[in-house]
Design a protein that fits this description.
Layout: E1 5-9, H1 13-26, E2 31-35, H2 38-47, E3 53-57, H3 67-75, E4 81-85, H4 90-98, E5 103-106, H5 111-122, H6 137-147, H7 151-161, H8 166-173, H9 177-190, H10 196-204
Parallel strand pairs: 1-2, 1-3, 3-4, 4-5
Modified residues (4-aspartylphosphate): 57
GO molecular function: DNA binding
GO biological process, one term: phosphorelay signal transduction system
C-alpha cells in the first residue's frame, strides 16, 4: 500500500494545524488533504475517492450536526470516518457510532489519541472513548430511514430543513422544480413523514445536543 490519503475537515485553522502535526508525528508518509467547510469536503472527496480516512468535525459551515457524516457514509461508503468534536457528551459519541463513524476523538484528547485512532481505523478497526450512553433504538431507526435516501434526496432534505420552497431548492441544486417535487414526495414516503415540517424536525434531530 502506498502513502495513506487522509482528509481533515474542520473549519478552525489552528485545530487543523494541531491535527496535521499529530498525523505527521504518527505517520510521516501520510498525504493529508484539508477542508474548511462541507462544500470543500465534497470537492475533496470527489478529487480523492480512494481516500483511506476522513477526520470530520461535526460543526463546520454547510454542516448540520450529523448530516455530513450520514451524507459521506451514504455517498462514499468506502471511506471510513472518524469524528473529531469538542462535544464529547456520551450520547453524541454513541450517535456518531450509530450513524456510521468508525471512531470518535474528543478535541480535548491528547495529540497521541489522534495517532492511535487513525492507526486503529486504517487497520480496519474502530476507536471510541468509553461510553456511558445506551444504544438508542430511535437513532438506529433514523439512521436506517436516512440510509434509504439517494445522495440527491439527502441534499433536497437538508434544503427542506432550512425552510426552502421547491422553487428555491430547484435553484439551489440546479434541478427542475418538478424533479424537486418528485424528490420531496419520495423523501416523505421513505421517512414516514406526512409533512415537510415533520421532515425538517427529523433533520433537527441530527444536531448534537449541547454537552451542558
Amino acid at each position: 500500500m502506498g502513502s495513506p490519503v487522509i482528509l481533515v475537515a474542520d473549519d478552525h485553522p489552528l485545530f487543523r494545524a494541531a491535527v496535521l502535526h499529530a498525523l505527521r508525528a504518527a505517520m510521516p508518509q501520510a498525504d493529508v488533504v484539508e477542508s474548511a467547510s462541507a462544500p470543500a469536503l465534497g470537492q475533496a472527496l470527489l478529487a480523492h475517492p480512494q481516500a483511506d480516512l476522513l477526520l470530520l468535525d461535526l460543526t463546520m459551515p454547510g454542516a448540520r450536526g450529523f448530516s455530513v457524516l450520514l451524507h459521506v457514509r451514504g455517498e462514499h461508503p468506502q471511506v471510513p470516518v472518524v469524528v473529531i468534536s469538542s462535544n464529547d457528551h456520551p450520547r453524541v459519541i454513541r450517535r456518531a457510532q450509530q450513524f456510521g463513524a468508525a471512531g470518535f476523538i474528543p478535541k480535548s484528547a491528547p495529540a497521541e489519541a489522534i495517532g492511535e485512532a487513525v492507526a486503529a481505523v486504517l487497520d480496519g478497526g474502530s476507536w471510541f472513548p468509553p461510553m456511558a450512553a445506551e444504544r438508542s433504538e430511535a437513532d438506529a431507526e433514523l439512521a436506517a430511514k436516512l440510509a434509504q435516501l439517494t445522495p440527491q434526496q439527502f441534499r433536497v432534505l437538508l434544503c427542506l430543513a432550512d425552510g426552502l420552497l421547491n422553487k428555491q431548492i430547484a435553484h439551489e441544486l440546479g434541478l427542475a422544480e418538478n424533479t424537486v417535487k418528485v424528490h420531496v414526495t419520495a423523501i416523505l414516503k421513505k421517512l414516514d413523514c406526512y409533512s415537510r415540517t415533520q421532515a425538517a424536525v427529523l433533520v433537527k434531530g441530527l444536531e448534537p445536543e449541547s454537552s451542558a
